[in-house]
Recover the amino acids of this structure.
């Protein structure tokens, strides 16, 4: 089977990463979570105290980005992918409430998106990759062979994220989670640079009604049809 690029875009907590991981495992493809990359940049901005002012100078932050080396490594023990910045495993740090609240602000900055988009394109040069995010099929890999757009009801998505955070021992209410996801949706769809949107060549999946097994059946049926054509 010829290797392809699979682009998965969609709303926060719509099941993008769950589907992407399952596809990559089945096909033995490389999985790239671009949301983790933006979270990693956000973590770095927090560590550099860039958020101490609402008027922080982006140009002062760009030199730090150009020295960054992102790496994704499969953790066999915990059955998940870890993200590294300059050899430091930041996986446990990027899901904090502080990072979650600020990541949409970082994602709106054109200079940061340009740098990360270039990194992401380089990761897919040899194909055989599943990448999820907000603008993969439109901006990063517009010629990807399979484009999927994930959505789900706000209540279902909020409950999923709430359970995930509670499982990690993070003290937060369901209403706080829902409020943050609504805010993320607004920020993602309204930004001027690479907003979240669906074009006609996407396959839309509503995870409110379709479980992961049904999603995978649909995806592999589409992949098989493409290989036959």
């Amino acid at each position: 089977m010829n290797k392809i690029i699979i682009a998965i875009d969609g709303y926060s907590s719509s099941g993008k990463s769950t589907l992407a991981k399952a596809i990559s495992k089945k096909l033995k493809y490389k999985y790239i979570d671009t949301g983790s990359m933006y979270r990693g940049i956000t973590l770095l901005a927090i560590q550099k105290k860039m958020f101490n002012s609402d008027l922080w100078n982006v140009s002062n932050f760009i030199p730090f980005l150009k020295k960054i080396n992102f790496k994704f490594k499969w953790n066999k023990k915990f059955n998940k992918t870890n993200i590294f910045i300059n050899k430091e495993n930041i996986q446990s740090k990027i899901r904090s409430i502080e990072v979650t609240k600020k990541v949409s602000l970082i994602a709106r900055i054109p200079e940061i998106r340009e740098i990360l988009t270039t990194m992401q394109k380089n990761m897919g040069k040899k194909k055989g990759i599943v990448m999820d995010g907000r603008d993969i099929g439109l901006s990063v890999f517009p010629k990807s062979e399979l484009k999927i757009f994930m959505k789900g009801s706000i209540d279902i998505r909020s409950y999923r994220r709430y359970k995930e955070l509670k499982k990690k021992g993070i003290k937060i209410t369901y209403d706080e989670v829902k409020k943050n996801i609504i805010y993320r949706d607004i920020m993602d769809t309204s930004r001027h640079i690479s907003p979240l949107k669906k074009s006609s060549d996407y396959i839309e999946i509503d995870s409110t009604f379709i479980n992961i097994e049904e999603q995978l059946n649909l995806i592999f049926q589409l992949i098989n049809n493409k290989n036959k054509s």
